[in-house]
Amino acid sequence: MVPATAGAPAARRRIEIEGVVQGVGFRPFVYRLARSLNVRGFVLNSSQGVVIEAEGETDGVEQFIGRLKTELPPLARIDELRISCIEPLGEHRFTIHASRSAAEHFALVPPDVGTCEDCRRDFTTSTNRRYGYPFTNCTNCGPRYTIIRDVPYDRPNTTMEEFGMCAKCQAEYDNPLDRRFHAEPNACPECGPGLALVSAEEMEAGAPVEFASGLENCGVLERARRWLEQGRIVAVKGLGGFHLACDASNNRAVGLLRERKRRNGKAFAIMARDLETVERLCFVTDADRALLDSARRPIVLLPRREDAAVSVHVAPGNARLGAMLPYTPLNHLLFEGASYGALIMTSGNLSEEPIVSRNGEAWPRLRGLADYFLLHNREIQTRVDDSVVQSFQGRAYPVRRSRGFAPDPVDLGMPVREVLACGGELKNTLCLTKDHYAILSQHIGDLENLETMEFFRETLRHLERFFRVSPEAAAHDLHPNYLSTRYALEQSGLRPIGVQHHHAHIASCMADNGIDGRVIGVALDGTGYGTDGQVWGGEFLVCDYGDFERRGHFGYVPLAGGDRAVREPWRSALAYLDAAFGNEAAALPLPLFQEIPSKQIAFVHTMIARRIQTVETSSCGRLFDAVASILGIRHQTTYEGQAAVELEAVANNSAGSYPFDIADGEPFRIDFRETIRAIVGDFAGTSPVPAISARFHRTMAQAIVEACGRIRASEGLNRVCLSGGTFQNLRVLEQSLARLHARGFETFIHHRVPPNDGGLSLGQAVVANCRLAAN
Fold first, then answer.
1. What contacts 187, CB < 8 A, 6 or more positions away?
2. Contact between 747 and 720 (Cβ < 8 Å)
3. What is the reported pTM?
4. Secondary element (H or E) of residue 333
5. Residue 257: phi, psi to the nearest 5?
6. Which of 204, 328, 425, 566 is in Cβ range 3.0-4.6 Å of 482 for a Cys bridge?
7. pLDDT tens across 55-111, in order?
8. φ, ψ for residue 410 (rounded to 5)?
């Protein structure tokens, strides 16, 4: 401790801090720093963040403030720091005061954090009192968002309120020098939550569930590991909900899980024992390692090795595996001494429903899916699915933003009004704005049923309460039949603000990168309601936050059967083939004419020719579908984007591209009939499918750069934002960026929110704020 200098002038400062400063060990850090500098006063949690009053020598107080800014705990982040001079009180010590709450203020709610190494040593060391305990945590790790009921983040405001701490845990909790000081979920085997393993038969019979205490938890885990080793499927209640787990190398178990879950083609995520196991299954870069091993612990999409020792049913037709590392003590302990090195860890739900989070829901909603249920009695307040990312050019490129990221806000760098943005229909998230933040929810899912819509409402209630938001407006997609649109329009007292789908994509990318002004926006995806009532998806815009102009688009083709064409790519193939070959299309030597019943083909031909039950579309996604079907890769899909994923997966590194035309006009049209003719010619010749796929991807990149060049020539704009689900395809993204950079464009892509519809709500929110400010 630095001694005070007799007669030195005293100073006192009030320091108000906003950011991620609750539940991350910030107050004990402040306490220790103050004591080391002989600074007196106090620190407390408020509804808005942290408040400090620091008194001492002027030099000591200034040094204290300087080190506050630079020596933060690992999980803390300061977004705003306000300092005011106040009168010294002559205090003699520094203390930690009780929290204060004000209804109009809010503090940033921290996301859930993966297990730290200190805690891992605790539950894997046989002499430690937390040995084998699956709920070990400290201020540097553990549950946060999933257990918080209200702010400030104190134990009575969490689902840990019902677990009274034993004397040893209470002593840790009360000691500012302990890393478990005010760790709100702090517990041990004697006083905290426990496990129970229940068979499906026992669940069906309604047998009472008894949760373990003490070392009994080790026995429960041993039985769970044994059933997993024997090929059983176990529903595991985790941090933000249930997972369905089985041995990832067991063909029978993985195939059975796929059958039971009605998940015909979409890849399962795996959880590996450690980083070395991931590297035996996948090719891993330094950027991938950093993501896998980060405190956020997302699922990372990685190129799979040909000899990867996982079941063929894990990711059929996909060149990548989604892998993650254990992020809770329970996860780690499931691998302790087990014979398997990787487990399937897929969301505990029936297809398209929200993840199950409560013990009482487990049997009604997971009935028939799992053989055993590994339960615990710590309530999950907010259900949260796993996040999915991929690395691109050394940085994170998000696919699904959820656990570990939500509800960490996006700092918009400008004051905003209080607005609700309801997102789209697929991969839905919602967004609230307040002060200078955009607060995105976790991944909610596809709003196609009442269960997911209730999850939307539940999440909105939580976030409005946590962040003290009372929206004045509700931003929404223009599609009149989206449940999110209907919700926005039904909110009495909120001004509805419709935002075109692709404008929202580009605004999201702009906000993600902290830019404003006019940009060239390239928005490529599967479906978005256009201002002309057609289905857009291959769009070239000039826009700012307030408005947009459609300067170019992919040429329209008729989509036969509407949404059915999304599930049956051969319908899109017929539309493009008819446009390119006319009446000669049916005679082409293509797989679809042998593999799809001739009566169905004739019927759809008639629909296209007579424009019966068709809608015109400029969708980039449907063009990818068409090419996948023409090449015989995929005629029918079981999940959104499957044909495009499999088309990308087969591509090799062949050179060359295909011709296309750009028709003049306002807006101009990119015509791919020549592309389709060339692809069919290559397919009928000697070119292998992987080479054709590679050339098609390169054609997409070339079309993007040519379209941007046209807009730059007329507008003088040089900044390009790339957004939309198509840009999850790293081949298209990389080749587009390379060509744009070669032509001197300044480019922007996503890094904090996904380019797919999971980022739409952010774009809607900033557009709505701009329009409110203009009025």
1. 135, 137, 160, 163, 165, 169, 193
2. yes
3. 0.92
4. helix 329-335
5. -60, -40
6. 425
7. 999 999 999 999 998 888 888 889 889 999 999 988 889 988 877 765 556 667 889
8. -95, 120
